[in-house]
Amino acid sequence: MSAQEKHRLVVCSAEELREGDRRLIELDGVEIGLLRAEGTCYAFRNSCPHQGVPMLYGSVVGTMLPSQPQEYVYGLHNEIIRCPLHGWEFSLKTGKAMFSPAVSIKMYEVKEEGDEVVLYLDRQPQSITRKQFACVL
Amino acid sequence: MTTRVKHNGLIDCDVHPVLSDFNELVPYLDESIQQYMNIGKFAKGALAKQNSGSFKFPSSAYANPLPVPLRADAFPPNGDIPGSDPAFLASDLLDRCQTDFAILNIGHGTMSAFHNVEVAAKYTSAANDWLYGKWVKSDPRYRMTMEITPLDPAQAVQEIERIGKRPEIVGINMHCVNIPLGKRHYWPIYEIAEAYDLPIVLHPDTEGTGEYAASFGVGPASTYMEWHTSLGLIGQRNVISLVCEGVFERFPNLKVNFIEYGFSWIAPTMWRMDKNWKALRHEVPWVKMLPSEYIRRNIRFGTQPIEEPARPKDLVELIQMIGAEHMLLFCSDYPHWDGDELERAFLHFPGELRHKVFYENPLASFRIQP
């Protein structure tokens, strides 16, 4: 399904999702977290596949890339979100866990269009709740 | 006593020959070290008195309290110590069990954790030559692991270069000191071990027997019972170190055989390591597979002293549960007090698993040319 065929949902204004901001929205009972890092907006299911805690509390970080033994190579700066409970690392670009491509968080298509932050969904949600969210990160 | 277990091949990965007397080493040992050890022509007379018996072989502080701390049914006819007579051992153990190959791991103690590394190194070379000359050459079924000095990797590499290509040498008996096994300190040894296709063998001995001995995690044991039961902790700590430091990424074909540390603890160790790696991968980014995958690929375990759960089949289920069928190596530990008898210890093992443990796994894990 192309973006044109998907359901378009305006989440907030671009001003409401500035660098480092986070937003939480619930669609048909499913929480979706949004954040902006290095200028890019990301949207993902707000639940870690491991033990279900809300991913939106996770730190946005870079990480050590797979390397030769006893060598540290830093990369993927601010492209990783780390689960707030056990620290599992997921790529904000793909949703895949760093330790295995078989484990992932669901990522949603999100675009910044003019002054709007827009989610593109597979279907139109029946209920939409914009939730209050605050965290110290 | 006869053994009636039918098998299609048996490789005993842990048999212990011992020196009857340190003077057995004299033909193999540099004069300077004979003097240091007060043996040979320095055994009696003024010199021993002059140096006040300064040399003491590093023996464990944890002595086995049994009246006879070795198999009391294994004394050779001449009344010497069990494990001191190659011909008697061959008949008492190998003939009885129809053993194809017995891997000899020196049983009279090691100097790996001894404070004077030069003395330890020369003693180790002499002990290797004694084992090769007196034992290995006495029966075609004998193979041996060679000892090295883990505190001095450069010297250890020289010793491996000196004798490591002999076909009778099937592994490197490293012993552990207070440097975890994964540290780069050991990598020159691992490099040559991998190149020579020799597994590293870790066997308890140094624990509590020298200034560089590994600790028991918390603190000293009070009794032999505590000491003996805690050995598994050292095995566990070293498995964790090997995987986390990236040894098996750097040396993918290196085998490390943990003999006499038990093996049932590997199940929770694997589970815990896999779980922690998912959270902490960035700290060890060179670990690219699940830790349990490296363990299954590169690490092997001796069966003795076999765990004895109240329901014996639980052990078989545990082996199946963790996929360890290819990881276990039969060890009798003859002539030690806690050895395992072939006939009884594996009673509940299915035939196919037994054959793997008795023959296939040792054949694949040591450099044995049948």
UniProtKB/TrEMBL annotation, chain A:
Residues 9-119 form the Rieske domain. Keywords: 2Fe-2S, Iron, Iron-sulfur, Metal-binding. Pfam families: Rieske. The keyword Iron-sulfur applies. The keyword Oxidoreductase does not apply. PANTHER family: 3-PHENYLPROPIONATE_CINNAMIC ACID DIOXYGENASE FERREDOXIN SUBUNIT, FERREDOXIN-RELATED. This is Rieske (2Fe-2S) protein. It comes from Brevibacillus choshinensis.
Automatic annotation (TrEMBL), chain B:
Keywords: Lyase. Residues 11-367 form the Amidohydrolase-related domain. SUPFAM superfamilies: Metallo-dependent hydrolases. InterPro entries: ACMSD, Amidohydro-rel, Metal_Hydrolase. The keyword DNA repair does not apply. Pfam families: Amidohydro_2. PANTHER family: 2-AMINO-3-CARBOXYLMUCONATE-6-SEMIALDEHYDE DECARBOXYLASE, ISO-OROTATE DECARBOXYLASE (EUROFUNG). This is Amidohydrolase. It comes from Brevibacillus choshinensis. The lineage of its organism: Bacteria, Bacillati, Bacillota, Bacilli, Bacillales.
